[in-house]
Design a protein that fits this description.
- Helix 3 packs antiparallel against helix 13.
- The chain is 45% helix and 16% strand.
- The chain is α/β, with parallel strands linked by helices.
């Protein structure tokens, strides 16, 4: 496959076809299947976004390949990221749904199990900027920040694994705000945390509002689940009156932890990228196709029907943002390592 790609690219250069990428892509993608690798369980936010994208992306890729989604769970998305980086062929037919922000944090903290360099993925784009919140079931009794702060016992919160935002964010909140928290980790995705909350195993969890709104909609609308905190620099329009985590921070260090450990990585969560070495011509085609899909009326209508927000970032913007995160102040990196550990 790689030899075929190289031959086509050489032919393009010889015959001056580099300005006409769609012609090249039409021949390459026709009759092919492009696989999206999702590092979390079916039914969660990453899976829901990826399956919605998969229903429409193929129309915007020359040659109209079939798009399929494969779930590869484990280690908070680390297993799937390592797979895309090390094992998947760089042939333009395997696209990773990558939590770029947490992957970068895991890399700079030198966590075990990291077998990638996040600067080398070929980024295609971000479907939505992450807006994390904490939501709990009404039966847990934690229906406001006042009740959470006053709780005499640690509030059980579902988490995935170190390196996932549905773990790291909770650790940062626990340290920066001193909240009573018992982190129950090991779930394969937010769908499992949701079920655990409904079954009374945990009070709830902290992950993106877009996912909660789409997959926990009935409980939110009925009041059986309640959002009590926004982990954002500014409040969302559809969550009026819900306080911001950073407003509870009492020291500069606490504010810096929330800013760098939560706010700054949130633009790089729902991201997509190819393995290193994927031909630049194919990356260019997919960046254009991804961007076109983000403005497709049918895609936007499908997303709206599933209660999914769309707030995209281009592959070029994501590449620049990811590179900049590696310039963090060493003292802040040391503090993040202390809080999150290098598990």
């Amino acid at each position: 496959m790689r030899n075929k790609i190289s031959t086509l690219i050489v032919a393009m250069a010889i015959f001056g076809l580099t300005a006409d990428l769609p012609v090249f892509a039409q021949e390459f993608f026709k009759g092919k299947t492009l696989k999206i690798i999702v590092g979390f369980a079916a039914g969660g936010g990453f899976d829901t976004y990826s399956r919605t994208l998969a229903r429409h992306l193929g129309r915007h890729i020359p040659g109209n390949p079939t798009i399929v989604v494969e779930n590869m769970t484990g280690a908070g998305g680390l297993i799937s990221a390592n797979y895309v980086y090390k094992i998947a062929k760089p042939d333009g037919l395997t696209l990773g749904n990558l939590q770029v922000g947490p992957l970068i944090v895991a890399q700079i903290l030198k966590r075990s199990g990291v077998e990638y360099d996040a600067r080398r993925f070929e980024y295609v784009g971000v479907v939505v900027k992450d807006n994390p919140v904490c939501a709990f079931t009404r039966r847990s009794g934690i229906t406001s920040m006042e009740k959470w702060i006053a709780s005499k016992t640690p509030v059980k919160i579902g988490g995935i694994a170190p390196g996932s935002v549905v773990y790291d964010h909770i650790r940062i909140l626990q340290t920066a705000l001193g909240l009573p928290i018992q982190l129950v980790s090991g779930y394969k995705g937010t769908a499992e945390i949701r079920l655990a909350a409904e079954g009374g195993e945990v009070a709830g969890g902290c992950w993106t509002w877009e996912s909660i709104k789409a997959t926990w909609r009935r409980a939110i609308e009925s009041g059986d689940a309640v959002v009590v905190l926004q982990l954002l620099p500014k409040p969302l329009r559809d969550l009026p009156g819900i306080p911001l985590a950073i407003d509870f921070a009492k020291t500069d260090e606490a504010r810096q932890l929330i800013q760098s450990g939560i706010h700054d990585i949130s633009n790089m969560i729902f991201a997509y990228g190819f393995p290193p070495g994927t031909p630049k011509e194919l990356v260019q085609v997919l960046r254009r196709s991804f961007s076109d899909t983000m403005h497709d009326r049918d895609f936007l209508a499908d997303a709206k029907k599933s209660n999914l927000n769309i707030d995209p970032m281009t592959g070029e913007e994501l590449e620049k943002t990811a590179a900049g995160f590696f310039q963090l102040n060493p003292s802040l990196v040391a503090k993040l390592r202390e809080v999150l550990g290098a598990q």
